[in-house]
Each structure stands twice: as structure tokens, then as C-alpha cells.
Amino acid sequence: MDQMTTRGGVDFLQLDARAAPQRDLTGWLTGALRTAIVDGRLGRGDRLPPTRTLAGELGISRGVVVEAYRRLAEEGVIAARTRAGTVVIGGPAGSDAIGAPGDADTGIPAIDNAPHDRARGFTGGTTAVHRSLLPHAEAGVEIDLSPGLPDLSSFPRAAWLRHERRVLTEAGARELGYVDPQGTAALREQLAHRLTRVRGVRASPADIVVVNGVAQALSIIAILLGRDGRTRMAVEDLGSVGAREHLRAWGIAPVPVAVDRSGMRTDRLGAADVDSVLLTPAHQFPMGAVLAADRREDVLRWARSGGLVIEDDYDAEMRYDRAPVGALQGLAHEAVIHVGSVSKALAPALRLGWIVAPKALRDRLVDLKFSLDIGSPRLAQLVLASMLASGDYDGHLRRLRSRHLRRRDVMVRALRAALPDADVFGIQAGLHVVVTFPNLDPGADDEIARRCAAAGVRVHPLSMHRCTPGAAGLVIGYAANGPTRLEAGVAAIGCAMAAGGIASRPGPADRPGPADRPGPADRRGAEPIGAPESAGL
Amino acid sequence: MDQMTTRGGVDFLQLDARAAPQRDLTGWLTGALRTAIVDGRLGRGDRLPPTRTLAGELGISRGVVVEAYRRLAEEGVIAARTRAGTVVIGGPAGSDAIGAPGDADTGIPAIDNAPHDRARGFTGGTTAVHRSLLPHAEAGVEIDLSPGLPDLSSFPRAAWLRHERRVLTEAGARELGYVDPQGTAALREQLAHRLTRVRGVRASPADIVVVNGVAQALSIIAILLGRDGRTRMAVEDLGSVGAREHLRAWGIAPVPVAVDRSGMRTDRLGAADVDSVLLTPAHQFPMGAVLAADRREDVLRWARSGGLVIEDDYDAEMRYDRAPVGALQGLAHEAVIHVGSVSKALAPALRLGWIVAPKALRDRLVDLKFSLDIGSPRLAQLVLASMLASGDYDGHLRRLRSRHLRRRDVMVRALRAALPDADVFGIQAGLHVVVTFPNLDPGADDEIARRCAAAGVRVHPLSMHRCTPGAAGLVIGYAANGPTRLEAGVAAIGCAMAAGGIASRPGPADRPGPADRPGPADRRGAEPIGAPESAGL
Q1: CA of B34, closest CA in chain A: separation in Å?
Q2: Would the CA dihedral through A249, A252, A255, A258 be positive or negative?
Q3: Exposed e or buried b per residue across A227-243, where buried means at least 16 C-beta atoms within 10 angstroms of its C-beta
Q4: Which of A129, A160, A377 is nearest residue B177 as measured by Cβ atoms?
Q5: Distance of residue A439 Cα from the nearest chain B Cα, in angstroms
Q6: What is the domain extent for residue A39?
Q7: Does B134 touch chain A (CB under 8 A)?
């Protein structure tokens, strides 16, 4: 028997059909269904009413219901079951499709995905990408496996155009005039809502400043700190070389603090004599660690005694193993500046990001944004707001994550075939992996990267992101290229190393072979982080 | 008889009711009506069908039609007439495009118009516009006559979308990745070609840096000069208050140099002890003078001896009387930084502009742009490049200039009616006029502007843009509002002054009256610039 009837038709939706808006009925219905699931009015396993039934009871066209179901299915919230009809498979943390326990602190519904850029993404990655855009430069490179780029071929071109048409049709003349330096209200509302719900960030629209990507966020923060004479900022070592260069450009001295299997050694913050710290707590770049609970406490204790935390939340939700941990900002919103962008979820070319600012700094951050460029371009802000409100953004992220996951699996198999003696780090999340070569001298990776480039493949030597020497390794992006190019690229890396006399000895018998596609279990099993050999990376 | 029936009901809309989208019917209908007007299927004076009739013929709800009419009325495209019903009042420029002879020196075809933003445009104007975007602020203001905004209702929405679709269809994944800090090559090529041809600028694509509007151009230039310790910059007095504030924000001290009927008193540059000068040679803001030939020579002589000229070419081609003079940069490309944007030709919300940089400074300017935000968003750059290459940009500028000219004429007539004793300056070009009140005390204009704001009309007091006291006056923008609002706004200004005991005495008999639409001849005749009473403004 249909569970819905026991719930009294569609009462669970708490919808008044007479309250249906004139426009965007589909968005209205999709949101109502999503809310009912997040609120628990619809539990995992519950069946949704047949589209015809729901349409009839709400007095709307069936096409609207079908489209709403399609979007929620794309988000992984519901699924069509041959016999059972349409069933809820997602829901709040603890009952989500990913199958991970939720974060008790934030109660993040794992059904959602949010976009995040990261310092390395825009500079460590960009410095190279920038060169590749200049004529004749890097002409030899055929396969770019540098980290930081998502699968750009899946950029939602049709959806972007559809929402831009809507924006241009509805926008009044004032919308085309000078902009609000803090960002367009419609986008700040959507971001505040989403970051609160998905990342446990504590933010109202008034706390958000829209910027041109995380790059500009760091520039503005660095300029502000510099004017206050707070010029020493702790950074992760290993950490983004791009972020360090960017901070230096604005007079901030990056102070390296070691990273281990649990993230930054936050116990060393006090001794580092710094005014602020730049962290990637949800997914440490480049190694992939999640900042351990006791370290989070360290940081927040340090912050409450006057330190400022800049939280680069970059790809917190581009995880393949479980729900992401909540943002640090949610636990100390007056001591943490939370930054993010759509560079990884949509495209770096959009140059669109945000700062969630502590109240004490907000006005000065907005004034700086105004002094730099008046404000960010408004059309793209309105388009993004429209995509967020419609659910199209969630659908895109869901598709993007599954594409990235498949490419991750191809990369891991290829690495095991080509570099059996390499240790592989950080495969549970993000857009890249790190391989280290315990049998090579520290610093040998520069030579390897040069040989790879000569062979037509660009990768980052791990030493590029180190402040202090350590094991040789490579940072290899897998999200931006298809399976064939990934396999060809990794094979070329293996050949380049072999040709350079950097032999790849056969892997131990107990190590899974190339044919062995990793399942959820041996994904964790294949993860050296936490294993003895990875200590003191 | 209803004109519509002669057009065969609603056939002029070329709408297939069956093609009506499921969502946003209102946007669909508004767009169709706008297109019909732009295409000329609906001409000025044509009557629109009654809402009930149109709703019936399209088989949609009447509310949708009412809302669509309301939006177009807001845009100033249609208006409700008591007896005539709803009538088309806007639309594309007809035969009244200006055919001024080309400039023999620069070979500028007068039909060409290039976009130019200006310092005042983005801050003097924006500071107010910005506030008006914040909740509850400026709630009383109904008609915004502050300068710097073009006719935003004529933004080429359809063309922009058409070119964006083309860009998104043709762009490879790399185009969506990280950007070239200097700007997308396709746009730099188009800009170099256009600025050379239309403005006599000496530029190759390699000389151009794409930035987020003139605001960011000035920020980058100011930061660069500040790092060199070149912190004293001459500015025009009268001149843009926004530019002065912007420069101060980055540590540059604006040094006022007087402006007269021939532009800046460049003979005083040497004594001013400055490292650089910010000029608006083609159309001095706010008074509208063209920098005289001997003064251009002064400036270039001064520049060749080590001074740096920043040329804000803002609305050089938004002229109504003749072809604009060529850019200073063309005569000394190593001593002049030429800046501009599309804020005035398309929309400030696009935040898209350029720097034409001397070779000696180019690399440092690009590095600063990279350090600030990596680079400007690429999609809008590609769309603009496509519009420039297709000629759609030129077509839009021609239509825009004709619309601005008509509004200028309405403004001049209204001013003569409401403020017969005011002197009117700067009507031959740009988006605003300046009125001065010789019979009032200097500084009285602050009070006048306050009274106008209280009456619901925003204007700039002339003293806002002065560094040293002088005749009271107002800066009044006419481009952004339709005739009805312009007339209402100016009438309100007259009333506000009269109510404030600032009486408007009847003008001299020889002064043309309100009914007298100025022709080319008495446009010049009515122009006090150069007349004795305007000396030492």
C-alpha cells in the first residue's frame, strides 16, 4: 500500500496549492519536497505519490511534478524503483545516500553538494594555466594533469544560458546600473541559505561579500591585515605555493607550519608567532587530510585568544567516501573568515566567489572591495542566484561529482599499473591525487616533472608545494581529463621516470593490480594517510 | 480605429501561443513585445491591444499581460494614455541619427561610437547608486538624475544573449579554465583594432590589459605609482569627486589644477609639483570642455620630461555636434595610460574596461592585475569581442546615441522652462548637463540638492565636484530616464528651488523659450562655455 495515503495524501508537503507562485512552479515544488525530506516529514524509504496523483491534488500540470522529481533524483535525494515507485533515498546526515554518519555538530544534510575553490586552485594551478594561454608557451604539453581544474566539459552551458535569458528578461534597468559592492542581494541570500544548510556556516546575507574568486578574497584580506600591521600568517607545509605567492604580493609573510596525517600541527601555532592562519580544514591541500577534531579545538582556542582564521573550504563536498565535516566558521563565526568560489563547481573563468566575514571586519572588507573595482559584475551573480534557487546547481554538482569519481577510479588503476611502488594519497576527495616515491631522494620530483613535461604531460612536483624538503612526489589532477587521456598521461609519466633511470620496481604481491577496480573498502585500504610510512610527509 | 486590427490582431508579435513556455510566461511575453518594438513591427505611437484582448488571443491569463505591460512601461518603452490606451513611446533610433562629418585628422567616421566610462561615472555616480541599492536608503528618491548612467533600458539584451550562446557553443573547455591576467586575446585584438581606428589610439593587442572597469584601472595604476613613491597626481578642478576619493584610497594625493573654458590649466602643471595627471581631454568632466590644442601640447611637453598622463577617454564619442578629437595617447603612447570601459555604452553592471599601457609599465600592470584577482571573468570578454567583431556593438552605439540626443533635447527644453536664469553647460556631448546659478551664493547648491532629494529627485551639487569654491550649480544626468521623467524631474527641481525661496527670475527676452527646440545652430548659441560669464568657473 502506498505510504503516502497513510500520510494523508500530500499533506506531508504542507503545501497550499493556492499559494503556488505564478512563476517557477517547478522550483517551488522541488523546494517543498526537498524541505519535507530535510525536515524528516519524508523519511528514507518513503514513497512519493505518483506524479499524476500529486499533480491532481495540487492542481498543477503533471509536467511540473515530473520535472521536480527529475531534479531531486539528480540530486540523489529520491530514486525511481521499478516496483516501489519513486522512493526517498537521501535525507539529513545519518540517513543519506552516501551512507556516512552525519556531523552531529552541524547536522549537514549529506544530500547536498556545495562548490569550493581553493588557493592552490587559483594560483598554484593558475600560474601554469596562465602560461599555457600565452602563445607558444608550453607548446609541448599535450595532457595537462596539473591539479585544480574540474571537468570543464560538463559545464552546464544550456542551463547557464537559460538562466541568463531569464535574468536579462526580468532585470529592470537598475539591475544593469552600478553594483552593490557587497554583492547582489539575491545571490547573497542564496549563498547564505546554502552555506548554512550545507556547510554549517553561520551566515546571513549581510555577512557575505561577493568577490572575483578566492584570489580576490585573499587579496582583500591580505590588504586589510597589512594595513593593521598583522603581516604574519601561518600556512600549511605542505600547502599551496600559489596562496603563499599571493599573500607575499600584498606584504603578508607566510609562516610554514608542518602538516601531518591529521592536518596542520596546530599545537605549533602559538610558537609560530603569527597573527592569522590560512587553513584547508575539510580537505588539506595537497595531501587530503581532514583536520582532526582535537586540532580544530586547538585552532579555535588559539583564535579566541585573538588569532584570525582564514578557512579555505575549497572542495569540502567533492568527497567520495562520506559527508564532509562542517565548516570551522560555524563554531566561531567571529574569529573565522570563510572563503569559497564556484571555480571548482562551475568554471574558474567565471571568477565568482565569496567571503563570509566576521561582523567586526565586514564593513572594511566591503570598503576595500569598493575601492578595488566598485563591485563584481552583476549578470553572473544573478545567473548563479537563479541556478541556486532553481535546483539546477545541485543537479549539476551531483553529475559532476559522479564524473569526477569515475575519473578518480581510472587514475588510481592507471597509477597502480604505471607506478606500482608509489604511495597514493588523498583519493577520497577532491580533484587530484598525490603520489610519493619513498625510494627516491627528496627533490627528485622536480626532475621527474621536467621529464614529464618534455614527454607532453604537465604535473606538479610535490616539492613545489613544500616549504621544507621531504619525500619526492607528484600532484596529479584527474578531474579535467577523460579516461583515455588520463591513462595515456599516467603511462607517459611511468615511461618518463623509467627513461630517466628512475625505475618503477614491481609492486608487492599484496598490492591490488591494475585490473582490480577499487571498491569502497579498498579505497580506504589503498590510502596510506595514517599509515606509518606517511608520517612526517 | 485600433491600429492593432490593421496589423491583424496580435500577429505583429509573431507568437505561437502553443510555443508558450511552462515557466515564466511573463518573461516570454515581455521579451516578445520588446523584440517587436526593437524590430519595428511596433512603431512609436502604435497602440498595444487591450490586455484582455491579447490574453484572449494568446490563451494566457490576463495577469501575465498586465505584468508584461507594467515592465515595459517601467523601461520607458510603452506608456498608458488615458484616451489612446497603451502606446509605444520607446524604440530604436529612427532617421535622426547624426551624420557629422568625419574628423580629417583622425579619420574617425562620425557614425562610429566607442564606449567610455569615467572616474566620476563609477564613483561620483556609484556612491549614490550604491547607497540606493541598500535597503531603506534613499527611499524618497523617485527620479535619479545623477550623472554617469546611460539609457540602460536599451541594453541589447537579445544581442548579448545571441553572442553569449555563440561563445558558449564554440568555447572549448580551456576557455572555461583559468584566465589570462592580461585579458582574453580575442577581446584585446578587437579593442586594439577599434581604439586605433576610432580614437587614434596607438595600440596592439599586447598593449592592452582588460580590467573590471575604469575603477579597477585607476586602482591598479594608483597601487603601481604608490609603490614607486609617485604619490602626487594632478586632477581637474572642477573634476570627479569619485576619482579623487578612489585615488586617496590607494595612497595617491590628488592635487587640484584649475579648469577653464579650454580644460585644465596645463600651464600650471609644472608648478603643481606632481608625478602624474588624470585628464579627461575629449570631454572634461563635469563642464564638458574639449582640451584646447595648445594645452594638449603643454601636457605632452610636460609628460615627455618625465610626467605620466592618465587619459580617461570616457565618453569621447558620445558627441552630438561633431566627431571627437583624437586621444592624447596617440601622440605620446609611452607617456600616456589610456583607460576606458563599456559602462556607458552597454552597462556599468558588466564591470568591463581596459588599460592601454605604455610598454615600460605593461608587465607590472599585468602582474598587479594577476595579484588582485587572477584576471577578469572570461565569458563577458568573449561576448564583447563577438559583438565588436559582428558590428552589433556599433549598431547599438548608434541607436544609443540617438536616444541620448533626444533625451538631451528634452532636458534642455525643460531646463529653459523651469530654470530660465540658469546657465547651461556641456550639452554637445555626454550624458549630463551642468547648470550654474550666477545669482546664487557659492555653495548654495548643496542646499538645492538636498531640497531636490526631499522632493524625490537626485542630482549632484556642482560643489560636490569642486576642490575650490565657485559658482553654485547642479550636475544633471539625462541619459538614464525617459522624456516624461526628465520633464517631471526638472520641474520638481524648479519647484524645490522656488519653495526654498531660491526664486527663478524670468529669463531675458532673447533667450529661447521652452517651446523652442534647439537646432544645431542655437545648440552652440545656447552654450555659455567660452562666453565671458563662464570664465573662472
Answers
A1: 10
A2: negative
A3: eeebbbbbbbbbbbbbb
A4: A129
A5: 35
A6: 12-88
A7: yes
B334: domain CATH number is 3.40.640.10
- Same domain for B386 and B405? no
User: Do B409 and B351 share a domain, yes or no?
Assistant: no
Chain A closest CA to B7's CA: distance in Å? 25
CA–CA gap between residue B267 and residue B149 (Å, rounded) = 33
3-class DSSP state for residue B117?
coil
Q: Give the gap in angstroms from C-alpha B248 to the nearest C-alpha of chain A.
A: 10
Residues in chain A: 537
Q: Tell me the nearest-neighbour CA distance from A170 into chain B, angstroms.
A: 6
Which among B152, B213, B380 is the nearest to A374, CB-wise?
A: B213
Contact state of B22 with A375 under an 8 Å Cβ cutoff: no
Name the A residues in 335-354 with CB < 8 Å from any B CB: 347-352
Q: Considering only alpha carbons, which residue of chain B is nearest residue A154?
A: B173
Q: Has residue A207 been placed in a domain?
A: yes
Residue with the three cell numbers 552593490: A180
For A245, nearest residue in chain B (alpha carbons) = B371
**Does B328 share its domain with B420?**
no
DSSP secondary structure of A209-261: EEESHHHHHHHHHHHHHHHTT--EEEEEES--HHHHHHHHHTT-EEEEEEEET
B169 near A CB under 8 A: yes
- For B81, phi then psi, to 5°, come to -115, 135
Judge contact between B384 and B187, C-beta under 8 A.
Answer: yes
Last residue of a domain, one of A88, A118, A145: A88
B498: number of CA atoms within 13 Å, CB side?
13
Number of domains in chain A: 3
Which residue in chain B has the smallest CA separation from A152? Answer: B173
CATH number at residue B55: 1.10.10.10
Q: What's this model's pTM, rounded to 2 decimal places?
A: 0.73
Tell me, yes or no, if B71 comes closer than 8 A to chain A by beta carbon. yes
Query: Which residue of chain B comes nearest to A123, CA vs CA?
Result: B374
Kindly determine whether residue B123 and residue A374, on different chains, have CB atoms separated by under 8 Å: yes
Whether residue A329 is found in the same domain as residue A343: yes
Shared domain check, B365 and B340: yes
Closest chain A residue to B128 measured between Cα atoms? A178
Whether residues B379 and B428 fall in one domain: no
CB contact, 8 Å: B249 with chain A?
Answer: yes
Q: Which of A390, A417, A436 is the last residue of a domain?
A: A390
* Inside any domain, residue A95: no
The CATH number of the domain holding residue A486 is: 3.90.1150.10
Q: Are residues B361 and B436 in the same domain?
A: no
CB of A172 less than 8 A from some CB of B: yes
Please tell me whether residues B386 and B432 are part of one structural domain.
no
A180 inside 8 A of chain B by CB: yes
Contacts with A, B 183-242, CB within 8 Å: 185, 211-213, 215-216, 219
H-state helical runs in B171-236? 185-199, 213-227
> What distance lies between CA A504 and its chain's CA centroid?
33
* 3-class secondary structure, A25: helix
Q: CA of B475 to nearest chain A CA: how many angstroms apart?
A: 18
Per the CB < 8 A criterion, the answer to whether B202 and B196 are in contact is: yes
* In a domain? residue B308: yes
Q: Tens of pLDDT along chain B (537 residues)?
A: 333 333 334 566 766 666 677 667 877 787 778 767 755 677 777 888 888 888 888 888 888 888 888 767 755 667 787 677 888 876 543 322 222 222 222 222 222 222 222 233 333 333 333 333 222 234 456 899 999 999 999 999 999 999 999 999 998 888 999 999 999 999 999 999 999 999 999 999 999 999 999 999 999 999 999 999 999 999 999 999 999 999 999 999 999 999 999 999 999 999 999 999 999 999 999 999 999 999 999 999 999 899 999 999 988 779 998 888 899 999 999 999 999 999 999 999 999 999 999 999 999 999 999 999 999 999 999 999 999 999 999 999 999 999 999 999 999 999 999 999 899 999 999 999 999 998 899 889 999 999 999 999 999 999 999 999 999 999 999 999 999 999 999 999 999 998 877 754 443 433 333 333 333 333 333 333 333 333 334
- Asked if the structure places residue B110 within a domain, the reply is no
